[in-house]
Amino acid sequence: MFELLTTWLAGMQGSSSIVLALILGAMIAIDMGGPFNKVAFLFGSAMIAEGNYYIMGPIAVAICIPPVGLGLATFINKRKFHPNEREAGKASFTMGLFGITEGAIPFAAQDPLRVIPSIVVGSMVGSVIAMIANVGDKVAHGGPIVAVLGAVDNVVMFFVAVIAGVIVTAIMVTALKKDVESAPVKNEEVQQNEEIIKQATPNTNLNKLTDITNVDLIETNLKGETRDKVIDELISKFEQNGVLHSKDEFKQAILKREEESSTGLGMNIAIPHGKSNAVKRPAVAFGMKRDGVDWKSLDGTDAKLIFMIAVPEDAAGDAHLKILQMLSRKLMDDEFREQLLKIASKEEAFNLLETIR
């Protein structure tokens, strides 16, 4: 199916660019990082390799609209969302800035009939505007971060497209959703709703990053001179701490994710992550490469601060999202990154990581 969809998209390049933009926008949003999303994303990446940046441009716009749009909706109309959804909205908004569509998943899982149409329409609107305006993206990533780091052609229209799509999503979802306290509901219905939210939103038992890391999972002086050597060092940390069933199987998951697109976010940050049955429990390893290592980052900077996330396959929709939310919020703070770069010991690093929550 993946190959058929890719061939179909490739065959559309000579047809209406508006139709192609509509399809790409819908595919990016409809499963938020799932198979349809990946087909559209990898198709755009392949077009970059062929020198065509004007397919990835609309995709880069569409990628961030679901999480940012839903985050905005929780800010402007709180009556439509439960308290834990409003809290998740803050993290969703931040994840969208980094181009992480998965921040929308908890909302879609809670109310798919209203949320999914809203994010699909918003992403389609943004994608079409970007296509008409010839917005190009030279890297295989999306969200405002690629524009800020200089990878986008026609930056003004990129943001116009994003803002338009976000507004459409926010207005549509708030119009469709009912006030959560608008009418009395039966106790059984309340319990069902609470159970759905509990399953859809990240695990509340994970309150801070240091709940799933320790001093032994920190290395302040990585030796590897290449990305893969650094990956090996951090995976060894997991193995030594009993986090993995299989070191080799987990490495395959990490490298497979890197093949999709680099986890080098720029600003000297890389967040390699793997979801695999080879992982026993969620964990994060942190490493510093003081002179940096090439991670094919969006802004061309070498990675110096490397956070490796390991989660079991059955926790992929829970712990994985929570960890990404915590990291993306904190790592946008320039002062925090500077403090990390100055630490001299594992203990200092651990104390600083305790502030990530």
Protein described:
This protein has 357 residues and is α/β, with parallel strands linked by helices. The chain has 2 domains: 199 residues, no CATH class; 145 residues, 3-Layer(aba) Sandwich (Mannitol-specific EII, Chain A), CATH 3.40.930. The protein is built from 15 helices and 8 strands. β4 and β5 form a beta hairpin. The chain is globular, with a radius of gyration of 20 Å. It starts with a helix and ends with a helix. About 4% of the residues have low confidence.
Rg of Cα set: 20 Å
Number of domains: 2
Helix content: 55-70%
Number of separate helices? 15
Roughly what fraction of the amino acids lie in strands?
A: 5-15%
Category by helix and strand content: alpha/beta
Q: Give start-end ranges of low-pLDDT stretches.
A: 182-186, 196-204
Anisotropy-based shape: globular
Major beta sheet, specifics? 6 strands, mixed
Q: Note the run of SSEs as H and E.
A: HHHHHHHEHEHHEHHEEEEEHHH
Say how many strands there are: 8
- Terminal residue distance: 39 Å
| Whole-number mean pLDDT | 86
